[in-house]
Amino acid sequence: MENNFSMPLEAGKSVLLLIDYQAKMFWGASSKDPTYIKNNVMAMARGAQILSIPTVLTSIGARVNGVFLPEITAMFPEVAVIDRQSSAFDAFEDEGVLKAVKLTGKKQLVLCGLWTSMCMAFTALRGLREGFNTFGVMDAASDYSRDSDAAAEKRMIQAGVVPCSWMQVVSEWMHDWKNPKAADLVRKVYQPYNGYFGQKGP
User: Fold this and answer.
1) Do residues 20 and 119 lie in contact, with contact meaning Cβ atoms separated by under 8 Å?
2) Parallel, antiparallel, or unpaired: how do β-strands 14-19 and 133-137 relate?
């Protein structure tokens, strides 16, 4: 029997879905520091951009909640943010989002979003039902309280979503230091977004 928890992430098999990183959505997501969340999702987005991972960006009610983080949309100038027309928390209930992800032909779905207990969790669970091997980037997601964040993470994991951190995802995509993009990843991802790699040597 296949075990999703032991399956390596592969750049050639992955699609990245980023859900609702908008100004107003950050306001109530206080379980983790907003600067920490922004740092982590930007790191993951930059890693995906460097490694040519197909990326889907979605927002909800942009006129009210604000536009998707412009620092990330600038990384993907060819990708239009899908402002969902469905009022559902599950982003995949918007046919445009589900179609965009399926059109990539990738079966490893890496996702995160605001908030953990709502749009991220419900979309991740739907991803499993749609047949994707689903990976949730937990350190790039946040919720209204630590308890709600933790409960959402547990629910996803119990259902079969594989928990990850941004550095784990980018490193698995890179695979090893012989990757031809390794130098770019160190300079543009590891160093600016991680304190350890950002240190200068003695």
Assistant:
1) yes
2) unpaired
Identify whether the C-beta of residue 129 lies closer than 8 Å to the C-beta of residue 92: no
pLDDT, position 1? 47
Q: In which order are the strands placed within the sheet that holds 108-113?
A: 82-84, 55-60, 14-19, 108-113, 133-137, 162-164
Q: Rounded distance, CA 19 to CA 111, Å?
A: 8
Dihedral sign (CA 103, 105, 111, 115):
positive
pLDDT of 202 reads: 53
Structural domain containing residue 95: 13-193
- pLDDT band per the 50, 70, 90 thresholds, residue 196: confident
Distance, in Å, from the CA atom of 151 to the CA atom of 8, rounded to the nearest integer, reads 25
Q: Is residue 102 part of a domain?
A: yes
Q: How far apart are CA 90 and CA 112, in angstroms?
A: 12
Active-site positions?
119
Residue 185: inside a domain = yes
